[in-house]
# Entry
Amino acid sequence: MTSETVARTRPMGQTPIWVSATAGTGHLLRFLLRRDWRRLAVWVGSLAVFCVYYATATSALYPTAEDRQNRAASISNPGGVFLSGPGYGTDAYTAGAMFANEMTIWLIVLLAVMNILQITRNTRSEEASGRAELVRALPVGRHAAQVAAFLLVVIADAAFALLGSGLLVAAGLPVADTVAMMAGLLTTALVFAGVATVTCQLTPHPRGASGLAMAALGLALMIRGAGDIVQQHGSPLSWFSPLAWPQQLRAYVDLRVWPLGLSVFAIILTIAIGALLASRRDLGDALLPERAGRSDAAPALSQPFALALRQQRTSLLSWLVGCVAMFGLTGLFVGEGFGDVLRDIADQNDLTAAIFGGDPLAAFLGLMMLHNALAAAVYAIATTLRIKSEEEEGRLGMTLSRPVPRATVLLSHLTVVGLGTFVLVAVGGAVALWIGVFISGGDVSLGTLLTSAGAFSLAIDVMLAFTAALYAWTPRATPLAWTLFAYVVIDTFFGVLLNLPDALRALSPFWWIREYPATPLNPAHLIGLGTAALALIVVAVAGFRRRDLSAG
# Structure
């Protein structure tokens, strides 16, 4: 009998049902900590260090009150409000208000992504692999894995809050406001951990569960941005998004702590819903009905390219919808006269003038395309590594058991990823941005944006090919692909501030694009990126043909 059955047959006064339903939680939590501590340490450490670096860097870049007011003016437009926050303290902008207004939303998003991935990995992925069934064969309660997974992200988020608070206080920010702000980040990120707990009960597929939770996060981001644009300091619409609640603490301006209660209530509510839904389904099953598929596969799926396209199309469509929504909306703010506004802002601040250069509008569009390219790079690396999961779960071995060359399978997978990446930067970035600008009455060349998309696609192809080479030769080394991405982000946004030498910055594929369209492209750089991508793919094919599969 299961532990739940045993609990129900006990006499009155003995161990209650809820205790047996969580039996074994401590053992599972210790196992998860031992397995995931390195992964979580990288997340927590990176975010905490970035917090203190941003605080110290902005203090150095905007040392005077006049500099900070110019910064406040530069984000007072709708686009700036959407990407930052409701604008508390912008009338007397301090370093703390700048951090709370401009950084909290993105720190929450990153923490929420970490929580969603961890919850999915430690619950729904374990069920899909069959390992959860082996664990449940032991005296482990129905909700033990769910509770342990949630406690794991609580520990990780709390570690970030404590470390980040200490570093920010050491950097000179007030203690009470810093602690309150970090508590807001912690509780809001846990709201989306609770959302992931719910979505894991709805679909049997880990990617589907994380995708639904990510969609909820994206919707919350859109609602928060739209609500703050409608009215300064947030409109009633803003309060429907959990992402707005920590910014409504008014840290470093006029601190109030009662919005934390909204997050706490949402955490309790989502956990309760998740537990209720988990009690109403069988292990490995889901509550949302799955659409019945064909009784036999379509003939086209016998070809590796068609199979790879079928496997990736849902993920690509989800990413495309997100990019179109984000950058199409951004384009709506680049209407007639937007370039003049940027020039006025640049004239008031030497640093802004240095960033925008001689053509602020071109620099702004380049910055938007850069953000789109970074999102597409995440898609490229994650989707490339999907073949690793196919190998570990034995499906790749079944594919290769047919008379099909290994090189064909790998190249088909990479081709679909490369095409999907180009669609994201060309359609989700360039075309969506151009349509938004056109609707708002602005004047931007579609050809320029598409040229930027093509250039960034080459840079992303280098990262894609590097990931494939790591997988083909040493699958355990594939986390280095994310290390390269992290370096690209650091070099892109902080390379100049860190005064990195060009020889080191050249390791970033994005460095070779420079600030196009503000500066022209160098054809030799594009040829070099294409050559590097092709060489790495050749290396990947050679390695994949030589080594044995880990499963299947």
Observations:
- The chain has a mean pLDDT of 83.
- The radius of gyration is 25 Å.
